[in-house]
Amino acid sequence: MKAGECYDMLEYNSNIIPIPVIASFNTSGKIKPIYFQFENENYKIMDVITSYTEVSMIYFDCIYFNPYSDFQNKITLVYRIKDHFWGCANKL
Asked: What contacts 24+ positions apart, CB below 8 Å, involve 60-69?
């Protein structure tokens, strides 16, 4: 991916922030996010509540653990299928 291409996602949806994600793929190709990074901090995803596909993106509503506050929080991760690009749809 060329520098700046990741922000192509923002052209279509300005509230999606590019982030690194570690995900698992099963033998059927189903995706499950496991960890994500935001502002140099790593967060573990505890549960994927729902996932759904819209056009060329898969949305994952997740619960993650914030070790700094001892609370579980909700985040929506977005996976763009065409170029395997990850982002989050809401700020932490």
From this structure: 60/31, 60/33, 62/33, 64/36, 66/92
Q: Are 56 and 81 in contact (CB under 8 A)?
A: yes
pTM: 0.81
Measured CA to CA, the distance from residue 15 to residue 71 in angstroms comes to: 24
- Residues 32-72 have pLDDT tens digits of 999 999 989 999 999 999 999 998 999 999 999 888 887 78
